[in-house]
Amino acid sequence: MRNTAQEYDKVIGICRDLFVKKMTDYGSAWRILRLPSLTDQIFIKAQRIRSLQENEVRKVDEDETGEFIGIINYCLMALIQLDLGVVDQPDMDTATAARYYDEKVALTKALMEAKNHDYGEAWRDMRVSSLTDLILQKLLRVKQIEDNQGKTLVSEGIDANYQDMINYSVFALILMRFGQ
Questions:
Q1: From CA 22, how far away is CA 131, in angstroms rounded?
Q2: N or C: which end of the chain has fewer CB within 10 A?
Q3: What is the pTM (predicted TM-score) of this model?
């Protein structure tokens, strides 16, 4: 029997470990990034995944795994930036950043569990390429919302889109049997 919560936690644990190691190497330099810059970083990763999925020839011997991890971690940085705002200089130690990371993951996982209940784990029958397309669609939505200075008439906000991208990326990694 599949246990989505355990699979989710395992994927996030690997992503978190990389996040903490990069914080140790680079500090919180990412805190200077404005939301559109983070969105663009996520977009680059999603575009690379799509390119890897569509192209038969690869010039770099890598698969999509690292890019999905990057999407997860950049989305979590964006959610933190949404709450704390952008700074001019790195201002956060590793323990504090990890605490914020964990808080955002908990909220995002709760959203996943609610939607997963309502949708009956439909994602398990999806293709990884479809999840990639959904991430790209969410990114285009976020870019439009950013261009509208964060205002929406009837749509969910930027934070919900980042959360969905995290969850789609985790689902893709589970489907790819990452971490198993």
A1: 26
A2: N
A3: 0.95
